[in-house]
């Protein structure tokens, strides 16, 4: 592939049902981006091959006007944030198959809006990101210029949209110490001795989105390896993490690397000893009172991490089990939340694990229900290896 084909704004939209089958633990939107970017990445030149420095957006893509100087792998998260904020798909701003073109007025407008947002934060908030695309758009292509009428009785509580974006909570710190809640959680799932015995886990079940149920298999192995196979009619969709790097595979498409926040999320999902590791994950941790999640009264713990967005963990007051985890993906334009709700805890070889979890993002949600679990069974390390790239097709002479 020669020359650069690039993008400036790629408004990745709410995933369609067919795309959601491709996803486990990684946003389906990333897969849309990866497919759309086929041919959009620049081939590395000799100079770039001489250095290990990460590429910037303008080095990786053509016709970058606003989002210059940031790591290239931050471009897709930025597009995801725009997609979720405006509720649009790629074609809203881009010419399909030619993302570097400036033919659409909406693309020009998007550039102006990003410049405006950066200027507002610089001039009014000392450069801190207080205003984002979502501040005005709230899931609409046009900014909301007037308050909506009340469609239902208001619910008491803090502004969840603000809290979700910043990973904060309006309540003052209160409740049992976070370390006490971590210890209660560890005890509730079976204790450190039982968890230490787990070296692998193989799960089979179904992934559900909308009215579709599709078989899924998940293989995990210590330390921090995890791969899932979603058996779609078109072929297997794969999400893999080998403890250091992650990749996505989907039918009839090239394998794609994970980047940025998806690596962070994959490492958490792959940790078979997560309840043991909680107390060492955070630079600062606080209990922020209680919240109601379904039928559960939960303590909320907010944990700050060095160089990474915070985590919000909700522990059942009675059982001590983890009911919800909220993590955030950082992008140049704002944070994207991922919420995972855990349910249907059951015992497997002395350890309690959730047999059902629901993952929700701004662009969609899916539920995984596990029907079969086997632990401490042999799982070959080769299962988690990235497959080799297929050889390029030999081109015959032009006719």
Q: Please provide the count of β strands.
A: 13
Order of helices and strands: HHHHHHHHHHEEEEEEHHEEEEEEE
Class by helix and strand content? Answer: alpha+beta
How far apart lie the N and C ends? Answer: 21 Å
Q: What is the topology, as strand order, of the major beta sheet?
A: 6-5-4-3-2-1-13-12-11-10-9-8-7
Q: What is the helix content?
A: 10-25%
Q: Count helical runs.
A: 12
Oligomer: single chain
Approximately how much beta-strand content do the residues carry? Answer: 25-35%
Contiguous low-pLDDT stretches (5 residues minimum) are: 1-51, 157-170, 393-399
Task: Provide the CATH topology of the largest domain.
Answer: outer membrane lipoprotein receptor (LolB), chain A
CATH architecture of the largest domain: Clam
**Tally of structural domains:** 2
* Shape, per Cα inertia axes: globular
Specify Rg, calculated over alpha carbons.
22 Å
**Largest β sheet strand count, sense and barrel closure:** 13 strands, antiparallel
Whole-number mean pLDDT: 81
> So, the CATH homologous superfamily of the largest domain?
Lipoprotein localisation LolA/LolB/LppX
CATH class type of the largest domain: Mainly Beta
């Amino acid at each position: 592939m020669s020359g650069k084909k690039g993008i400036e704004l790629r408004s990745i939209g709410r995933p369609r049902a067919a795309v959601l089958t491709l996803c486990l633990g990684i946003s389906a939107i990333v897969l849309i981006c990866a497919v759309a970017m086929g041919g959009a990445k620049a081939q590395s030149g000799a100079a770039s091959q001489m250095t290990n420095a990460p590429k910037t957006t303008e080095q990786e893509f053509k016709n970058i006007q606003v989002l210059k100087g940031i790591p290239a792998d931050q471009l897709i998260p930025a597009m995801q944030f725009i997609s979720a904020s405006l509720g649009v798909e790629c074609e809203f701003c881009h010419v399909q198959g030619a993302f570097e073109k400036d033919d659409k007025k909406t693309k020009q407008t998007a550039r102006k809006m990003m410049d405006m947002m950066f200027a507002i934060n610089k001039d009014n908030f000392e450069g801190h990101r207080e205003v984002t695309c979502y501040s005005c758009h709230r899931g609409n292509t046009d900014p909301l210029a007037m308050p909506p009428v009340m469609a239902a009785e208001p619910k008491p509580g803090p502004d969840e949209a603000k809290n979700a974006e910043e990973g904060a909570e309006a309540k003052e710190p209160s409740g049992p110490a976070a370390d006490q809640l971590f210890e209660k959680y560890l005890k509730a799932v079976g204790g450190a001795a039982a968890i230490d015995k787990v070296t692998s886990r193989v799960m089979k079940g179904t992934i559900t989105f909308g009215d579709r149920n599709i078989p899924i298999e998940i293989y995990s192995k210590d330390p921090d390896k995890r791969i899932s196979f979603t058996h779609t009619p078109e072929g297997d969709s794969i999400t893999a993490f080998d403890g250091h790097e992650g990749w996505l595979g989907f039918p009839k498409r090239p394998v794609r690397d994970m980047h940025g926040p998806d690596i962070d999320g994959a490492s958490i999902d792959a940790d078979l000893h997560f309840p043991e590791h909680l107390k060492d994950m955070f630079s600062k941790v606080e209990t922020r009172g209680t919240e109601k999640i379904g039928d559960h009264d939960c303590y909320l713990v907010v944990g700050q991490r060095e160089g990474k967005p915070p985590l919000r963990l909700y522990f059942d007051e009675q059982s001590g089990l983890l009911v919800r985890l909220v993590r955030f993906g950082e992008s140049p334009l704002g944070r994207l939340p991922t919420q995972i709700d855990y349910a249907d805890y059951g015992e497997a070889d002395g350890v309690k694990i959730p047999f059902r979890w629901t993952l929700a993002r701004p662009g969609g949600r899916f539920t995984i229900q596990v029907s079969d679990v086997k632990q401490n069974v042999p799982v070959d390390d080769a299962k988690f290896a990235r497959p080799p790239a297929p050889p390029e097709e030999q081109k015959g002479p032009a006719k």
